[in-house]
Amino acid sequence: MHKLVVANYKMNGNVDFFRSVNVLNKLKVRDTKIVLCPPFLYLPFIKIKNKAISLGVQNLSETINHKSTGEISPIMVKEFKVKYAIIGHSERRAIGETDEMIANKVVNALNHDITPIICVGENNANEGLNVVKSQVKVVLKAIDKNKIDKSREIIFAYEPVWSIGTGKLPTVKDIDKAIKLIKTTAKTLNLKVLYGGSVSGDNYSELMPSMADGFLLGGVSLKLDEFKKIVLGVDK
Ligand code: PGA
User: Fold this and answer.
1) Ligand 1 centroid to 122 CA: how many Å?
2) CA nearest 4: which of 37, 36, 32, 23?
3) Confidence band (pLDDT; 50, 70, 90) for 1?
4) Residue nearest to atom 6 of ligand 1 (CA)
5) What is the Cα–Cα distance from 218 to 186, expressed in whole angstroms?
6) Residue 232 to residues 43, 56, 84, 130, 219: CA-CA distances in angstroms?
7) Where in the sequence numbering do the catalytic residues fall?
8) CA angle 153-109-129, nearest 5°?
9) Which of 28, 45, 57, 235 is most exposed, with the fewest beta carbons within 10 Å of its own?
10) How far apart are CA 121 and CA 195, in angstroms?
11) 219: Cβ below 6 Å to ligand 1?
12) pLDDT of residue 227
C-alpha cells in the first residue's frame, strides 16, 4: 500500500514561496503520494506536473449553501484540481470548530469527491486516548447516517496536540497504540492513518517503524530540502 506525505503549509508563504514549491515536481518517487495543502489563495500558483503529487486544502465549508459569506465549498476547490482536504486540524478546533462541524465537513468533502484528511489527537500527553476514540466515532456516525460508500478512501491523521510545533514526539509504541485504536474504531472504513506533530528531517526515520501510513507535516513543509529528504526517505 502506498505511503502518503502531506504538507500543511498553514497560514504561511506568499506567491514567491508557492511558485518555488514547483521544484517538487522533479521528485522521483516509486510508491509514495504527496499532497500539498497551501492556503486557498495560493492554489493557482502550484502547477502540478508529477503524477505522485496532488493538491489539498486546509479546510472546507460544511455546506454548499451560497449564503455562507467567507466560506469555500468543495465544488469551488475542485475547479483548482484539489483532491484532498485537511479537516478538523487542532488549530481549527481551538478556534471553535466542533466535532459536529467536522463531521459535516467530512460528509461534504466525500459527497463531492474530495478525500478528507481528518485530524484527531489528545491535548495533553497524559490524557489517554478516549478523546481520539470519540473524535473518530463522530465521523463514523456521520458517514453511516449519510450512507457514504464505505469503499471511499478516508484518511485520519493522528496528531497529538501537545506534539504540534513543540518538538516533542510520542514514542513509536504510543503512535501505534493510537493508530490501532483508530483502525479498530473505524474498522468498517477504507482507512489510512498518518502521524503528524513535530516530524523533521532529523527525526522522521525514528518514526518510520510505526504503523503510520505516512506523515502530515507542518513546519518542515516550508523547508523544501528537508521536505524532499522526508519524502525520499518514506519512499525507500
Ligand atoms: P508541525 O505541525 O509538523 O509543525 O508540528 C503538524 C501539523 O500541525 O499538522
Assistant:
1) 14
2) 32
3) confident
4) 218
5) 25
6) 24, 20, 21, 34, 18
7) 89, 159
8) 65
9) 28
10) 10
11) yes
12) 98
Residue 217 CB–ligand 1 contact under 6 Å: yes
pLDDT in tens, 140-197: 999 999 999 999 999 999 999 999 999 999 999 999 999 999 999 999 999 999 999 9
Strand runs labelled E in 113-189: 115-120, 153-158
Determine the distance separating the centroid of ligand 1 and the alpha carbon of 141, expressed in angstroms.
27
Go through the chain and tell me how many residues it has. Answer: 236
pTM above 0.70, yes or no: yes
Cα–Cα dist 8/222, whole Å: 9
Of 64, 106, 111, 62, give the one whose Cα is nearest residue 85.
Answer: 106
Element (H, E) at 48: none
How does DSSP classify residue 16?
A: H
CA distances from 235 to 33, 56, 88, 215, 225 (A): 9, 20, 27, 12, 15
Report the candidate in 184, 173, 185, 156 with the shortest Cα–Cα distance to residue 211.
173
Pocket lining: 218 vs ligand 1, CB cutoff 6 Å: yes
Q: Enumerate the H helices of 23-83 as residue ranges.
A: 74-78
